[in-house]
Amino acid sequence: MAQSEPVRQQTLNAEERRRRRLWAVIKYNLQAYLFLLPAIILFAMFNWYPTLQGFLLSFKKVDPTFEHHTWVGLENFKRVIGDPLFWISWKNVLFYTVVAISFGYVVPVIMAIAVNEMRWQGYFRLAFYLPVILPAVVTALLWRFIFDPRPVGLANAFLGLFGLGPSPWLQSARTAMPSIWIVTTWAGAGGAMLMYVAALQGIPPELYDAAEIDGANLWRRIWHVTLPQIRFLMLLTLVGQFVGNIQLFTEPFVLTGGGPVNATVTPVMMLYKYGFTFGDYGAASAWGLLMFLFLAAFSIYYMRMTIFRLK
Are 180 and 96 in contact (CB under 8 A)? Predict the structure, then answer.
């Protein structure tokens, strides 16, 4: 049944009012949009556009000069997955991630709780955070000197105090990856510690007072008050650490170059080699897209299974 003229007129008037309100909101925020426009343009140029190009390149065979592109479909993905180092690199980085999270995830929490209970908190926060300020390459070079296989290396000199022989820290396939874990934990624990310290200082002191009245000792207060209060931050930090550990690159690249015997080669190192050593940008883009899909799937699954259920 056709609308009557008054009803149709009311509908048009309502739509006109909505358009006017929308335009009023745009005019009101126009100055803010203009201030944001340069940042949006730069972000699109240096983030969105390269991301889109990387996605397209993963389905192409690219000439090293970038002059000729040939569509090859899934050929790059087949070649990358068929590379024996594909599975070796993922095995290495997953082993590193499990070890790093098992220890490196707990260390900042312990450090934060200890610092929060100490006097001179400002000094300890600064001391623990200083390694985070150092560039990753500088940190790796510093630890390469510490892990010098000769007795003059600081690590082996320390072992010598206990009558232990020098250890080939970075030259042995058995100790190379654990050595890299020591480096990354030392370099990154301070940043996570500061976040936990901030969270701890936001816990109401009344909770600790009530726990003490109930006779709870230090460990019970930590277990029943401190950890539950920072649980949400710990879950978020776990996601960040997992994603960051999977993208391990600088430390093994500087310290071991992926060796010995491919014991420290990682997916990002293989991406780098395909792109900048072999000049195969299509395969490098395919490798990067596979990493993106894996990390995105893990993050979505983890967020749905843990964090969203806490809300």
Answer: yes
Residue closest to 186 by CA, chosen among 236, 226, 147 = 147
Our CA angle for 221, 223, 229, nearest 5°, is 85
DSSP secondary structure letters along 204-229: -HHHHHHHHHTT--HHHHIIIIIHHH
What CA–CA distance (Å, rounded) separates 302 from 192?
A: 20
Comparing CA positions, the residue from 111, 263, 61, 248 lying closest to residue 176 is 263
- What is the second-level CATH architecture of the domain 75-310? Orthogonal Bundle (1.10)
Q: Is the dihedral of CA 16, 22, 24, 30 positive or negative?
A: negative
Q: What is the pTM of this model?
A: 0.79
- What is the token pair recorded at 175? 């100790």
pLDDT tens-digit readout, 22-75:
888 888 888 888 888 898 899 888 888 888 888 888 998 887 766 777 888 899
**Beta-carbon contacts of residue 52 (< 8 Å; ≥ 6 apart):** none
Beta-carbon contacts of residue 226 (< 8 Å; ≥ 6 apart): 113, 200, 203
DSSP string across 77-97: HHHHHHSHHHHHHHHHHHHHH
CA angle 73, 272, 134 (to 5 degrees): 145
Domain boundaries, the chain: 5-57, 75-310
Nearest to 242 by CA among 291, 196, 292, 295: 295
Nearest CA-CA partner of 93 in 286, 273, 237, 245: 245
